[in-house]
Design a protein that fits this description.
This protein is about 40% helix and about 10% strand. By secondary structure, it is α/β, with parallel strands linked by helices.
Amino acid sequence: MTAAPCRHIAVVSLDLVGVDERLRRSIERIAVDKQRGAAALVREAAVAVAEWLQRLPPGYSALKEAICDVSRQLVAAQPTMAPFVQLANQLLWAAELAPPGNELHAIREALEAFSRRMESQLDRIFEAIADRLSGCHRVFTYSYSSVVLAVMARLAHRTAVEVLCTEGRPVREGVLLASELARLGIPVRLGVDAAAWQLVAESDVVLIGADAVTPTHLYNKQGTTLLVLAARHLNRPAYCLCGTEKLVPKGYSLPPEASKDPREVLEHSIPGVQVVNFYFEATPLELVSGLATDQGFFRPEEVSRLAAFSELHPALAQSGLVSLDDASV
């Protein structure tokens, strides 16, 4: 397959072909969101792109170039979150393979199909993990995952369940998850991150989300590896819950993460002290008990067989992509 040319862009400027201010603001808002997980953010991105497509004038002549720019901006907004790569990739291939004159229709169809899969996957993920949660009444989770939240809501309809979690420093997205679980009527015990060992020991099972999955690793909140190691030592199963939009397309390398704002860790700088503030880490799949996905349940050694490891569109080649978080104005 031959890719359409895609010009290099100054990512931080958001000076994009055919992109109006509303879409610019949506991408910028997604880029600075530090609390919500990948699934929630990419749903917002899909809605923003769909609304932008509706606003395009009839017969818009620069559609392919605009989709190229928008797709690369979506990836740059959250470059370590695989759903943004998957969404961008599918939009690019739809434009590339459409018959001449049918590009807009093909892009809309691809976007609608992506959104439908995102909305329908939660029931299938729950079905994939439900049997393994039988008899589990205390569930430990970490950070914020909309998939874990949805699975807990479904589990609570079947049995009495309590969630144990930690605050999720530095931005405390675990507190956000705790508050949303409580609003659903699910009892929660919230501890500091340093209490994770004790809370895992008191739980029946560990459930985590993921921002990206490769054939060998899952990428999630810093501290995930220590948690699954604790679960293994304590003989607690640890499962990753994620849709297949979290699978990284073949050919895409997750970029190295830049250390985030040191003030999130240390409000006032101390001479001679360097703050290290990374949000994500790579956890070997072999450390988890399995992945529950919308395609079923997979043990770590089976993940490479998942069909969603799609081919990367050449326009998303790593060269030229700059994270909005890492770029300097």
